[in-house]
Amino acid sequence: MTSLKTKNTAKNDTVENDMAENNMTEKATLLLVDDDQDFLNALQPAMCKRGFLVSLANSAESAFELAKNDPPEFAVVDLKMSGNSGLVLVRQLASLNAGTRIVVLTGFASVTTAVEAIKLGATHYLAKPVDADEIVAAFEKQTGDDEVELASNPLPIERLEWEHIQRVLAEHDGNISATARSLNMHRRTLQRKLNKHPSSYTK
Amino acid sequence: MTSLKTKNTAKNDTVENDMAENNMTEKATLLLVDDDQDFLNALQPAMCKRGFLVSLANSAESAFELAKNDPPEFAVVDLKMSGNSGLVLVRQLASLNAGTRIVVLTGFASVTTAVEAIKLGATHYLAKPVDADEIVAAFEKQTGDDEVELASNPLPIERLEWEHIQRVLAEHDGNISATARSLNMHRRTLQRKLNKHPSSYTK
DNA sequence: ATTCACCTGCGACAAATTGTCGCGCGGCAA
DNA sequence: TTGCCGCGCGACAATTTGTCGCAGGTGAAT
């Protein structure tokens, strides 16, 4: 139930219907902040389609400038920008408008980072790579954040490994060689592992 | 810090009445919550020595009872107790006294769990195993702007696995067969892996 | 005492996964 | 163009798993 993903044939109607309700007023404003232009380009239309009025910023500074004039209702901030600016921005956004729902992204599932972000005002955390639906889910999730499935994570070792690999891989922009080195494993092995799991294998 | 160099190295069983000592300086009250008695026993004297007035609880319920009458200034809560009680307790403690500094522990480096705990009021997060100094450091750390080491964690896959195994193993009280099943790996393999690394966890 | 249900360690051997080498290709900067 | 680096992939040896099975131990129920 967690990740329903849009198995919906047409995400369009769903969204449009949803939006139909608040459509009369105006779309929700969303600020995307990431220094990776490709990422912005990829996400922007997707979020538009989902009913957000999207602004883009490729640095914490410009994001702050934008936000100062018109604090967005939602924000997606990549922590992995030059410097700690990502975290700083989170705090700035939060203080500009405490109501802003901020989702933080990082290529790495660094607990400390995530925790820090939350303390500073982020409302949710996601590890890259993410897709638009996950982000939307994160925004919506907030309402009833009661039951949290925790602990009891006998996570099959194999999967643990896979996720770890994915993260590090993402962190290295998909560079297999670099990832292998970083993980201290042989390129060939990583290669083979990646080949095995084309995509799926969820839980 | 500020170690009171009082000669009482002995572990006072009745931690509550430290008044007998009548130090003009009041010790900070600390509540340790973990269902692992050994853990409590190990940590209690250590924290005492570091100048805390320690109370113990081996369940979220009893912890709550204790806290109701006398909300502690500091708390260490193991999230990994039966049920979601750990998280619930965090929230309870926070609402009893917003000023309570709560450090949350988990055997698992689960990002989501940590994040959730923070949202509910914890002020810091640590992964087991920890030592007393780390906890104290966590307490002292101000929530303000800390330098956060981003990413930087290309954790060798092999170690990731090892730690994971150790956790799950601990979770099953060292039962190899059960752990193997839980991890979805063969007993023989686990056995061999464990044999390889002679020195178990440290720190 | 005996049976049962489980755990533990360990030997052995086949099956599967890794470690290594090396080749050819394709970008990219000097 | 040359050199550096990354990518995919074949091949083969070195290791590591998956499986079986056996012997021994423990605790509870019979």
Architecture overview:
The structure is a homodimer of 203-residue chains. By secondary structure, chain A is of the alpha/beta class. The first copy, chain A, is built from nine helices and five strands; from the N terminus they run αβαβαβαβαβαααα. The radius of gyration of chain A is 18 Å and the shape is elongated. Mean pLDDT of chain A is 68; it is low at 1-24, 143-153 and 199-203. Chain A binds a DNA duplex (30 and 30 nucleotides) through residues 175-178, 185-189, 191-193, 195.
Walk me through the topology:
Two copies of one chain form a homodimer.
Chain A: H1 11-23, E1 28-33, H2 37-49, E2 52-57, H3 60-69, E3 74-78, H4 85-96, E4 101-106, H5 111-119, E5 124-127, H6 132-141, H7 157-171, H8 176-183, H9 187-196
The first copy, chain A, binds a DNA duplex (30 and 30 nucleotides) through helix 8 and helix 9.
Please give the largest β-sheet of chain A: 5 strands, parallel
The tally of strands of chain A reads 5
Which outline of chain A best applies?
elongated
Distance between the termini of chain A: 12 Å
- Main sheet strand line-up of chain A: 2-1-3-4-5
Oligomer: homodimer
Which blocks of ≥5 consecutive residues of chain A have pLDDT under 50? 1-24, 143-153, 199-203
Radius of gyration of chain A: 18 Å
The ordered string of helix (H) and strand (E) elements of chain A is HEHEHEHEHEHHHH
Most extensive interface, chain pair and sizes: A-B, 42 and 44 residues
Portion in strands of chain A: 5-15%
